[in-house]
Amino acid sequence: MKSTLFFVRVQCVLLVVLLALSACSKAEETNSNRSEVNNEQEISEKSVEEVFAKDFPTPERSNYLQSPTVEKMDLPPVQQRLPDNPKITNEMTETMLDYQIGNYGGTLNTVTGSVNWDADVFVMNVEPLLNTPGILGEEITGNVLEGYEVTPDQKTFTFHLRKGLKWSDGEPVTMEDVRFAVEDVLFNEELMPTFPSWLRASGKASGEPMSFNVIDEESFTISFTEPYGGFPMRLAIEGWRNYHDFIKPAHYLKPFHKTYADPEALTAAIEEADFETDENGWINLFNKKDVISNEMAHPEAVGFPVLYPWTLVENNKTTMLFQRNPYYFKVDVAGKQLPYIDEIRSEYVQDMEIINLKVLSGEVDFAREATALNKMALYKKGEENGGYQAGLYDMHITPTDFFLNMTYEDPTWREVVRDERFREALNLALNKEEIIDTMYYGLTETSDFISDEFNVQKANQLLDDMGMKMGTDGYRKAPNGEDFSIPFVVQDAAPDIVPLTQIIVQQWEALGLNVSMRTIDGALWGTRNAANELQATMIWTHTPLWYMADWGVEFWGPLWESWWLTNGAEGEEPPDDVKEFYQLLDKLYTTPTEQAGTEVFAQIREEMGDHLWYFTPIQNVKQPLIFSKNLRNLAEEGYAIGLNFSGEQFFFADPSKE
């Protein structure tokens, strides 16, 4: 271990030196990059400020501009393709991004290790109804929706469509698309057997479902019987939520909905899709045709009407191609319809090492999801030859949280892991400084969600007090005398999950516990977790971002969570202290946003520290971000994933090179 730590510290010193040298040249490089942009395209100081002004006037309709690529298509003029009041892009705050008016053209090359999925493209494409710039959760502005108002009692929310908004196939987005999504899908018990808890009063499973009312052609209300101050934030960011809960292309989907479809045509479509023509046939067909955001890269997404900046036009075994949406609803302050970049080409590569080679050789224009902190020194070393820039940004997650499933179906296991003394002992045995040095090169810090005390002697005493005596096999027994083990089952979903789990295994074995690790396929891991078959695992959560409502409850108490989300109809009733924690989580959304992010979040942190529901050993981790030196409009600070949200603003200084 000493030799390993010495090697890591040598790497860390090398990384710090490389980052320092990079910082010294950053200003010169930035100035050089900007000089490549035509002078007439640079934003004046005034317009930079106005980019982010909430009341910035929309450019005159006669002054809108479009990509030369679109001019070659047989389409209506850009003035007719945009809504009456297009969205002036504000995905990043003014302190994060020195915005430049961009050039049109080029292909953005990305890489993914997953079939039918590219996380970087997903976040670039996702369009929530509302927006929180920089994904900071500090303010909420319009996005797909033009805006909203809320009554003083925080019960009724009035939302406004953008007049003239259009789907990617040119069809208008109307109030019928909203009504269809709500009344014919959300409130359809065949399609939605369990009404979503987040759309009930106060976001609770026990609350009354929301009420929906159409005011006029552009306005509708969502009302609740209890205050729900956090509702707009849930629409803006939680779970990378998209618009599809409240807006669906009714003109495309009605032929597959039994209320509207011709019975004979519907039966033929069900058979053609290879579904049984029973009572579930139309449900299966509709769900297949209704392509939601996390399916935007599936083959079924080709031709599906969307509101994204890029639409899928091709998906084969090696490549996914997304091309600009000529009806996209956003513009810059100069009146140029976004996105600037014409298309995104995502290449599927199964081997992570080949992905790294492609990044280092400059074949990738933007990479966040596929990067690894332990390769940062290598990224910096390859910048010049690869023609890219590698930077460190903030990670929006705690990347390696680990969980003990307290509802796993084994009485002995439950007796042990539900004892807070046991969880405290495990936390005391975690050498978090070693984790930071070994895995993260000092580029993170210990978590303030749980205690960072390292005391193996105290940990052993707690296990002794529980009656976990050492057996003849050299491992501690459960208090009832039965064998006890902690079998970690993980997926290789990120570069640090497997090696860090191995470190945890070693540190907990030092307490005389029988701890092991096994790696399985990601799909199987998901299936086993859903079936409550994982006893111990490691995965990331969005714990630092309170508004993401991600507290790992589906890993440390899946049956309890099921009980809570279904108001007791399913799962297993949790003990009182867990119920109190759930009630605190619900309070986040019944409280006005500014109060939720301070007072309520502080209470949640305290509860996590007191009860150790799960383990978050580190926080404020840095994440490498790699992008072409030819790419512009990338923020210099903030969350790495926040840059993805502003993808429509990216442009190439010289598109002819792409």
Structure at a glance:
The chain is of the alpha+beta class and 658 residues long. Helix content is 34%, strand content 15%.
CATH class of the largest domain: Alpha Beta
Shape: globular
User: Total number of helical segments?
Assistant: 24
* CATH topology tier name of the largest domain: Dipeptide-binding Protein, domain 3
**Count of domains:** 3
User: What can be said about the biggest beta sheet?
Assistant: 4 strands, mixed
Strand content: 15-25%
Cα distance, first to last residue? Answer: 46 Å
Rg from C-alpha positions?
26 Å
Identify low-pLDDT runs: 1-56
What is the strand tally? 23
Strand order of the largest sheet: 2-12-10-9
Q: Give the name of the CATH superfamily of the largest domain.
A: Dipeptide-binding Protein, Domain 3
The CATH architecture of the largest domain can be given as Roll
Share in helix: 25-40%
The assigned structural class equals alpha+beta
- Integer average pLDDT: 89
Characterise this structure:
- The chain has 658 residues and is an alpha+beta fold.
- The protein has 3 domains: 2-53 and 73-106 and 305-385 and 627-657, no CATH class; 127-297, Dipeptide-binding Protein, Domain 1 (Dipeptide-binding Protein, domain 1, Alpha-Beta Complex), CATH 3.90.76; 398-619, Roll (Dipeptide-binding Protein, domain 3).
- Helices cover 34% and strands 15% of the residues.
- It is built from 24 helices and 23 strands.
- The strands form 9 sheets. It has a 4-stranded mixed β-sheet with strand order 2-12-10-9, covered by helices on one side. A 4-stranded antiparallel β-sheet has the order 5-6-8-7, covered by helices on one side. A 3-stranded antiparallel β-sheet has the order 13-21-14.
- The model is unreliable at 1-56 (pLDDT under 50).
- Residues 140-543 form the Solute-binding protein family domain.
- Residues 29-52 are annotated as: Disordered.
